[in-house]
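Lecture 7 notes: from sequence to structure.
We start with the chain below.
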Amino acid sequence: MTQHFGETTTEKFQTSGDGFLSLPSKDALHDAIEQGTMTRSTISSFVENGEFTSLLDEVSSNAPCLDELTTEEKDTILSQHLTYYEAFGYEDLVPNENFAKLLNWKGEILVDDSLYRITPIGTFCTSDATPVGSQKIESLYQQILQKDSLAFNDSTYIKLTDNVLLYNSFPEYKLEGTSLESRASTEVPLKHYASNKSNGWVWKQLSNLLGDRSTKHYEYLHKKRVNGSLYDYNYGVYAESGAFVSASRKRGGFFRKINGWKDIDAQELEIECKDLSFVLDYNVPYTLTFPSNLQLVSTSNYVQTNLSDKPLRAIDILGYDVPAKTFYSTLKGTAPQILNMARKALNRDKIPDDTKVIRILTPTKCYTKILECKTSDKNCSKLRKVFNHSWQFYISNNIINNPTKLKSAADFFTNVKSIPVTHIECRVILLSKIDGSWGGLVIDKKYQGIDEHIYR
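Predicted structure tokens for the same chain:
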């Protein structure tokens, strides 16, 4: 049985007796996440053959996961009405709550004929979409934790058994975070991080095995802090990159394993990105002939991104792979500096000053660089922006058959309205205004820029 969200139909998604939601395809999963309209009652209407408990549901008093906690920890979770998402650190693993609410309390979902389970060490996938398959994943998960070792060796996934894979959903980066204090009364205090590391959540006791995860924190006011993340996760069935910023205050009481912080409304939250780079590999056979020199195709296209309320002007470039990669890798600096580099390399003086995006098409990849963009919201507890989803991408026959024609390249760029992505490089500045005071996080991923100094 199939159903696409938004359609009227009498058919339902199924759930197994174990209570994990079953979606018929990746397209159905994409629709559910993108639209974000599935309420608790809507999800319930898709449930058969068992009760579904979402990650976003409150932890129940008879939840099996409470058996491993102390009486004090159980009482705290129940008295604070924490959800599984809050109590067990899934904000780090699944930043998109539209996705999180489709997962059961163990982080499981059935898509097509495969069962997926998201854990701190990665996403398990099995073709045995039964309670037995779920138990097998749990057994393998516990074995890995007990052995205290796991090596992906830069692979996307590893094969654990004949029908169980483990996806490397959360790549680890090993640079340290440092704090930069304000040097003037009007300068915003910032904490700088040079990687996707995190601190202090329920899986902290696994740090020797897992390394640090994505969420960063900075307590720039007494018992109040800004939180944020720059993430790039591949769950096998779904992939997403983005950033979020939130505000929280310290809870009362004594906490050891659970989250000791509660979300609060900030007066304002802001996400700013600089030198945001994407690379899309569209896997076209390397049989095409591209011009050996970079050629400017267009300065009039616009691309859409969740990080800007308006479309951003793009310059589009066609070029052979090697010089294109070299050119792309040298585009570092402030937005005016990068535009001047582009003008010089292309021998074009009339590249518009309001250009915010540079795209380069090569025989095997499409490179996209957003020079700068910013978004904000007021009186909210969290601001999250998805840069883009990774879904199968098709390049048109026109550009394949006529790769050296500028018109074909222009057609290609015109059709690419949203920014393609398989991995990201950038700096994000995540700011929070609490009780009239600003504070923030600066998170870099392969970014070569200088220290930030922000004044408000």
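Points to note: Confidence is low (pLDDT under 50) at residues 1-17, 173-185, 196-213, 391-400. The first strand starts at residue 22 and ends at 23.
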